[in-house]
Amino acid sequence: MGHLFFSEPQPAARRRGGAFENLSGLDIVFYSIIFDRKRRTRLAQPIHARTRALQEIKLNDKTDMKADEKPENENTPDAGSDADAAGKEAADRPETGNGEEIKSVEERLESQKEESAKTYERLQRVSADFDNYKKRAARDMSELRKFANETLLKELLTVTDNLERALDSLTDKQGPPKELLEGINLTLGGILKIFEKFHVTPLESMGKPFNPCFHEAMMRQATDEHSENTVIQEMQKGYMLHDRLLRPALVVVSAPASETPA
Known about the structure:
- The protein is mostly helical.
- About 65% of the residues lie in helices and about 10% in strands.
- The chain is rod-shaped, with a radius of gyration of 69 Å.
């Protein structure tokens, strides 16, 4: 069995020059192992050498890159130093300005100031006009509310005059019906209450000096009892609505006794 196991390597030993012809099978196995290790070592040496060379190249490249980056970072100026340098240059640089441009800017500024002042003055005038308009509109509205019933109240004055004439005529007669007088008085009193509610007041003219703003003279009558131009008779009552004349009073004015009656 040992002869069959070592029968294959014998021709190889013979090809190397017949040096192993007299060796036993065990020796041949031993020497085969030794030669195989040497061969592997010789083959592995170039691979290890190349690997170490590549590692050295990479290490050198990294070292060179670090060496190159460090001076670049050290020499790179930061933003603060640039700003300080620019400020120093601006401070050291002499002021140079175009006189014509400065003058033009000043002229435009003055023009804008004048225009602004005119605009402000115009705004003040418009504001004042608008305030006056609001006041006038409010006054007109108040006047409208106050005298809105002027026409109706003036028409009611005629009814009041007729009721007063009816009372005067019935009073002059003998024995007027009591119920009739009461009815007329109640009607007249109701209308007078309405007048009072809407601020309609009668004018007191008797014995007062004649005033053309409130009185309308129907005639002049000579008399010694009253001074001249005094209202001595009231033919029709006058009325005021608030502070406005609703209807003037029709009156007779006194005149000197020596004057011929008009």
